[in-house]
From TrEMBL:
Domain of life assignment: Bacteria
Family listed: In the N-terminal section; belongs to the FAD-binding oxidoreductase type 6 family.
Pfam families, per the entry: FAD_binding_6, Fer2, NAD_binding_1
Name of the protein in its database record: 2Fe-2S iron-sulfur cluster-binding protein
């Protein structure tokens, strides 16, 4: 089977400069079909190599919101030594065509928000992109939810969507509070988000009981690591913390499954059923790729969630998971890129 059957061509409709080294790219499918996505999700592009339709993969978050913004748009920043971010910023123009596997991602709102009263977004730099998508959705759909955005940048001129965010704050002044942190500020206590400042902001906006507050984090790895540690130390339940991570840092596999025997995998995907056997050290995704099964994936290290599946029979073990919360794992959700069948055969379903 040719994996290219899972790919679609997408056309860049327009390009908008947001700040220095940051641009937004309006997208539409070349065949005219709608580009479906959920607030907070990303789209994964394929960059072919060696004359094949397979190659490098990169994911970029939508900054637009379905139902509010007419044209799906991604926003990205030039990353130093970033091969594809530099290519996008320097060379991509309206009319260019790209390959994609479509939208995915778990940096989204839970199905039921009845138990939550507040949402606190923590963003640094271009980490605002998926949060901006979520923010617009929450403000227009959930008027009872109080929303706080803590947004770190170097200075106002470098702040993506600065004007638009200020307009939202004025329009939704009873619901939205924005705390801008600029590293060039003379007030050093409010220049960068560190442990002590985050503790103070947490007390100010979430009090001492955090069970009714959801936290969404997006930014550099060290930024999110610090924020996660502080939040958990202050008693925020793990399931109340959602993180989006496109870091180039790849985790190193240190643990191994206790069961390293060969087991059968039945994979249900797009109305098709694939069966194969695999065992450690080959993950479910790695074996599926060898067989040219068009399973969606991007990071291959448990950081993005593109390859997520539901285990409906049997048990799997993951060596890394930075996406799924505990309640999702308990219901059988797994990341095929870091998963091995253990204790017997398994049946997985990808929808």
């Amino acid at each position: 089977m040719n994996t290219s059957s899972a790919y679609k061509r997408i056309v860049v409709r327009d390009v908008v400069e947001e700040t220095k080294n940051v641009k937004s790219f309006q997208l539409e499918y070349a065949d005219g079909s709608p580009l479906h996505y959920t607030p907070g999700q990303f789209i994964t592009f394929i960059f072919p190599k060696n004359g094949t339709n397979d190659g490098d993969r990169r994911s970029y978050s939508f900054s637009t919101t379905p139902g509010i913004d007419a044209i799906p748009t991604i926003t990205l920043k030039r990353i130093e030594n970033g091969e594809y971010s530099r290519w996008f910023i320097d060379r991509v123009k309206p009319g260019d065509t790209l390959l994609t596997i479509g939208s995915s991602g778990h940096f989204t709102l839970p199905e039921n928000l009845a138990n939550y009263k507040k949402l606190i977004f923590l963003a640094a730099g271009s980490g605002i992109t998926p949060i901006y998508s979520l923010l617009k959705h929450v403000l227009t759909t959930y008027p009872a939810l109080q929303v706080v955005l803590i947004y770190s940048n170097r200075q106002p001129d470098d702040t993506i969507f600065y004007k638009e965010l200020n307009e939202l704050q004025k329009k939704y002044s009873d619901q939205l509070t924005i705390e801008y942190l600029f590293s060039t500020s003379r007030n050093l206590s409010r220049a960068r988000l560190g442990k002590f400042l985050l503790e103070d902001l947490l007390k100010q906006y979430s009090g001492t009981d955090h069970r009714d507050t959801l936290f969404y984090l997006c930014g550099p790895y060290e930024y999110m690591r610090m924020a996660t540690i502080v939040l958990q130390t202050e008693g925020v339940p793990a399931d109340n913390i959602r993180k989006e991570n496109f870091a180039t840092r790849k985790p190193i596999q240190k643990n191994e499954p206790s069961d390293q025997d060969k087991h059968a995998v039945e994979l249900r995907l797009n109305g098709n059923v694939y069966t194969f056997e695999t065992q450690f050290p080959e993950t479910i995704l790695q074996h599926a790729k060898k067989l040219n099964i068009p399973i969606p994936y991007s990071c291959e290290s448990g950081q993005c969630g593109t390859c997520a599946a539901s285990c409906i029979k049997g048990k799997v073990w993951m060596w890394n998971n930075e996406v799924l919360v505990d309640s999702e794992v308990e219901k059988g959700r797994t990341l095929t890129c870091t998963a091995y069948p253990v204790g017997g055969d398994v049946i997985l379903e990808i929808k």
